[in-house]
Amino acid sequence: MFLPCELWLPKLLETMRCEEDMDANNAYPWSENDKAEIENYQKWLSEEMKRVDDLLKNGPDINRKWSKLPVNIKKFEHNATESTCKRREDLGGQELHDYLILHCSPTVLVTAPRQRDEFQSLENMKATLQQKFQMVKEINRNVLKTYIDFGLVLRKAFARHEYEKRRGERNTSWKVWLHENVGVSDSLARKIREVTEIVIQFPRLKKLTLPFDEVYRRRKQITTMLTFEVWAEHWRQ
Fold it and tell me: Where are the domains of the chain?
């Protein structure tokens, strides 16, 4: 005797999605790639449960398709660090300053961004944007520098797009141009530009090894902390 799938599967899926019901500020800050892999595993598990239920109900079927495990889910547990195990409470002042210092890499070199705009048009920026975004997708985990390197070019591209649009040289929106030519969503690009604006003023933040999603989530806490010279001086160097 077994319970039909429709009776127990919804409860299982509700349990698996429990973190989605948490406040966004307390949710674990997975990188976009990791989150996509975990959600893909969740979807696969749901489909496998349905197949198992069908097997129990209807017996063997040579046409039944059993899909391959999409990802070794245990690898995400093994990536836990002190920062990932820490409760995601709000931080501020000295506590936030110390937390950020704890998660800085001594090997990341901090250099001042180029002041001269070497790009003459938006079209000239496409290849560089694509290359920088590819690095973000490949390296991704806990390497804020790759996001900022992409963001520095991204903010120039955004300004160039607005300039060309005002001159009547371009009639597509920034969102459409970005999607068609770089393959990045407008929402992610906006987040990267927002964090980049902070790091430009305080370049030592580039050394952070926290996931980009967490840095973005803490951006207001970081901005508030940096209004005080006692901490701002350290991150400005």
Answer: 5-79, 91-111+120-236
